[in-house]
Amino acid sequence: MNQSKMEKLLVVKIGGNVIDDDQKLSSFLRLFAAITEKKILVHGGGKLATQLAEKLGVEQKMIDGRRLTDAETLKIVTMVYAGFVNKNIVAGLQALGSDAMGLTGADGSLISAHKRNHPSIDFGFVGDVDSVNSGFISSLLQLGKVLVIAPITSDLNGQLLNTNADTIAQEIAKGMSQSYEVELIYSFEKAGVLLDVHDENSVLKNINVASYAELKASNKIFAGMIPKLDNAFLAIRAGVKKVIIGKAEKLDQLVNGESGTSITND
Amino acid sequence: MNQSKMEKLLVVKIGGNVIDDDQKLSSFLRLFAAITEKKILVHGGGKLATQLAEKLGVEQKMIDGRRLTDAETLKIVTMVYAGFVNKNIVAGLQALGSDAMGLTGADGSLISAHKRNHPSIDFGFVGDVDSVNSGFISSLLQLGKVLVIAPITSDLNGQLLNTNADTIAQEIAKGMSQSYEVELIYSFEKAGVLLDVHDENSVLKNINVASYAELKASNKIFAGMIPKLDNAFLAIRAGVKKVIIGKAEKLDQLVNGESGTSITND
Fold first, then answer.
1. What 3-state DSSP class applies to B17?
2. A24-69 pLDDT tens trace
3. Rg (chain B; Cα; Å)
4. A122: phi > 0 → left, psi -120 to 50 → alpha, else beta; which?
5. Is B160 within 8 Å of A87 when comparing Cβ atoms?
6. Given A95, A109, A136, which is nearest B156 (Cβ)?
């Protein structure tokens, strides 16, 4: 297909700090509902899951920011992500005129995953993505639906799996880039990729393959950002047109290029 | 459309006692997955919600078998029905080769509802159904999806509502009867409509409008069954071809007419 004729699709990952805060969530949803292009929202809900686990006395263990997911924790994240958070976002978007529809990766075999097989750490019921059913997603988008996706997948053998929401957003963006001009937006609490982590005004407006190589060579990128940026460039290489990183409360400006960091091929 | 040319659609309501029991659920899902016609499964999950409410110390109040749904209880039923129960059924069906997809009434504006306005009882966030988006359901069935529906709806103004699963099954069956030859199956713990409530062998095999009038006139129907049967005849009058009531563990025989009570027009 001629890329210039492809329709635009925005895949937006909403950061955890927005989901935990009713007011922030409601203004974010207003900005998201106002986007006129086809769109998909991917969310997590980690802090709410942690709160429920505390109330239920289910101890939570984290390694490198990843939740170890035992059977009880899987039950909790399934209830919180696929139930409470997903359906409240759906209802909130509908009130704003979006024909929103909530899904997990398990629904309609949207995402195939397998239980993580790590050489030394048993992450429990944590899923790594194998493939995205882009034809099914296209069908739902063609029906005019706005998709809201919770980070639960299944292995197609009956096992639900807790799956990283950033990864799901990236895999969906990659999978859809055959049929759409996809922009992947990571909205979080920072203004973008910063040259100085302590200075919110030091946002890098654009990074491309060439400038990223220079920035890395001269140690100008904060180490914590490197895995995120490496992933962004993997998405670009797989066909995603642009990855945008910036503040959730400026989603409108992230979409129109007035805020955040844009990551592109060239 | 010529009714004889309509494709068959089975709308199956699964009883609460099956959902609470892993073994019963798994054999029920095997029977459900084996149905070759287009199909929709509607479930509740009341006992699991009650258990979670107890663990969280949220007091549950019932009036006439209906749960009074305050804000905390709404959160619990949304987590249990739309999250835990719905996604586990979806994953279970996928393992059996069904391309299952979980939804609530809120998703894609599948069902429009309003908060119940009762003259004397405040049921809280309980929904009564206004309409069913049968075009959307048809589109999903045409995509080959097996729909699994949790009894949460929204008022399209952002409010989620706890809604009776029997009612949802009935409204979906009625809504779909314009485009499909619909059979509505209520699977529960009894063998069907019994002439003698203490005798599981006294199942009435068929009831039609004429025989129902006679049975009622001669007081041969157990009073508790009358509202269910009145509802079944309302569904028939609205275009549903057949309502079948019987044992969940005999779902295959309910479908082929070898078990349970069949309720038809004539």
1. helix
2. 999 999 999 999 999 999 999 989 999 999 999 999 888 877 779 9
3. 18
4. beta
5. yes
6. A95
